[in-house]
Amino acid sequence: MHGVGGTTPQEMLDDPHTVRVSGDDTAALYRRAADVHAESRPERDGPVPEAYVWCNLTSGDGSRALWLLLLPFMVVNLAHWMRPAAHGRTRTVRLYGLLVRLTGLTLTVLFVAAACEVALDLAAWQCAGTRACAARHSWLGFLAPGAGWWSPPGRRLALAAVIPAALTGLLWYLSHRTWSAYESQQPLRRDPETEPAGEGGGSDGALSRPGFWYGRRLVARLRAAHTAVGLLTVAAALAAPAARFDRRPGGPALLDLLGWLLNAALIAAAAAVVGVVAGRGRSEQRVDRRLDRHLVRGLPLGALLLLVCAALYAGWSRPAWHSTGRLAGDAAFGGVTLAQGLLVIVLSCVALALYRTRPDPRAVLRGLGGPAVALLACALGGVMTGGVAQRVADWLDGDGTSMPGPPVLLTWQASVIPPLLVVLLVLGVRLALRARRLARAGEPAVARDYPHDPPDPARTHRIARVRALATLTDQAPRVVGLTCAVTLLLGAVALVGGLGLHTTPARAAEGTPPFVAGAADTAQALGSWLVGLGFILFVTWGRRAYKDASARRTIGILWDVGTFWPRAAHPFAPPCYAERAVPDLTWRMATWTGATGGRLVLSGHSQGSVLAAAAVWQLPAEVRRRVALLTYGCPLERLYGRWFPAHFGPAALTALHRDADCWRNLYRLTDPIGGPVRVPAARTPGAPPETDHAPPEADHDDEVDRAPLKDPLAYGRDAAHPLPAPILGHSDYRADPAFAEERGRLLARLRPDLPAPRHAAGEGAEPDGSGAQGNAGRSSG
């Protein structure tokens, strides 16, 4: 199995003639044309390679470009899976999941509120309510004061509410469409009661639970809740200004009563949505095929009915009502920002409590990786929504005098971006200096690895520099931690400044020393420009990805890591491709071994190694005994084990080593992604992992990690390498002779007492699985 970015089956199988034996255009299994009917040919000897190509799951057609807009939702979904490993704290684990789901709910409110700010406040209320602004934009002329039936403020707002309501509908559609394509895939049928205790059945083997890769019911329930809260946000943006006007002294009593009743209904509906989100998150112990049909259908329909009522209420004739100033954007965005900050703080406390039950010194930020990523998701959502509001306001208000502009809080949030970038710049310089220092210190080690070659200082320095740069991946937790700390501090400053001072940073700094006033003015102007630039980059990158397959593949690489996990926190996140890939692999392995009695070596590169591990976890115990695992460029411990300790921590990887018949891992010191899995040689569940970067040199049968592969294969020119050998880093592991050597050794070690494959006459590569599997094969008998 290939890794991120994908490749062609011809390249994977080293043959220009390949045939698809199972699957479709999205994900499929391929063989060499000469091996299509290998099982029916007794004279065929040796392993039969088969390639699983899954790159189209993340970088297929042009609609994938829309996934860029869903980036904050994807990031907050990652925070759900980053909880620390816990022991005996079921309620605390559930509380952690609830807090992440509520954080995801606030992101939906934030996105819809930004659409309401653009459509209702900036366009329909401010610009269309000002003759000078409406005259500059002819498409708003029919909404200008005195222009016709749509001129009253309430009717303008009701018409503009179509835009955020349509955005909510688009998010619902994308989630429903991908839900049908991914979450509806049926996992391999298993009876969890027949699984032996300890073979994935404990807390250290969550990925082996039958329902882990089947989140259909949860996604449907969360989709209903988030769709409803989006529509309720639009309804509140419509009803609040009209109700505020009706509450003035001397206002119509009937409309005032209707406003109170509508607001009470909106609050009750919002409480119902929170109750749905607060329900049990996932049922992983079994494949839950039920659907809460009444809830899934009733909740969005009820919210839509309230939206229609709010539109009718706001559109009621009020001759004395005129649009002046801003709508209550500061209060709305301030409330969402405050709620997100409090949720992240409480989430941090819960994460620390979980971490103390089973401390893991290699876990990111001592268990605070999930809260940190949740904070980054909120910050990213704020930058995207603030960028939209800033750019639309600049476009509508050409001279900068006819409109009040976006909420002051958004200006404050944009103004804190330059200080954050300064901190990141200093951190980047420090990392560069560290890499330079490590490169110089690593030159003697490079010379020791190639003792028989004449020294070449330039070549030595180049190899040492690549090794040093590869270690920067391990500094990512510190970068994320510092970024989150500064973001939280600056976000608090922006919240206090926006809600407490009720004016922009530049105006708030008037009367202060010139240095302070100049810095505030520069931060405000530069921050507004950066926020707008970020929004433009998102739009242009998405447009390019829609038309350009190579750019779309680049976006697919970004999603390969982020969308590996099921949508357990946010239903509008990009879909989980593993819910298609893992059942594909488990069905293939189980049906092939059942039909032929053969044995397999399942090999995976980079992200493919993560899919391979997940597939092995899902196999029944009798099939696992026929499968060996070969990983290379593998991030299982270096990235997944540190960032997702509850599912890929030391206990889980030790359980995988115990359950799989045999496992071998290849890595290089020049690889910035792959690394050792640090599983001890002795198959003792719960044993602590190795602490050094490289495992011992001894090559025991039960040792998972092989000694680091040489990279480059040759230091200088020789008879085998007349041209300079490249530094491969994370790529081309199969070009190393160690790959074929380890694959052959695993196939030979695979339970020698197992019978050879049965040669069924006339049996080919039909969908029943009578083929060989993934860079692996049929035993030679």
Protein model, in words:
This protein has 781 residues and is mainly α. Helices cover 55% and strands 4% of the residues. The protein is built from 25 helices and six strands. The chain has helices at 9-13, 71-81, 90-127, 131-136, 153-160, 162-183, 216-246, 253-277, 293-314, 329-357, 369-396, 408-415, 417-449, 457-470, 476-500, 505-508, 514-547, 549-562, 578-596, 607-618, 621-624, 636-643, 645-648, 650-659, 737-749; strands at residues 18-23, 28-32, 50-53, 600-605, 627-632, 662-666. The strands form two sheets. A three-stranded antiparallel β-sheet has the order 1-2-3. α2 runs antiparallel to α11 and α19 crosses α20. The model is unreliable at 193-204, 682-699 and 756-781 (pLDDT under 50).
Q: How helical, in percent, are the residues?
A: 40-55%
Please give the largest β-sheet: 3 strands, antiparallel
Distance between the termini: 24 Å
Rounded to an integer in angstroms, the radius of gyration calculated over CA atoms is 29 Å
**How many strands?**
6
Mean pLDDT: 84
Q: Strand content of the residues, in percent?
A: under 5%
Count of helical stretches: 25
Region (Disordered): 185-204, 674-705, 744-781
Protein name: Integral membrane protein
Transmembrane segments: 65-83, 95-115, 157-174, 224-245, 257-278, 299-316, 336-355, 367-389, 409-433, 479-502, 522-542
Biased composition (Basic and acidic residues): 690-705
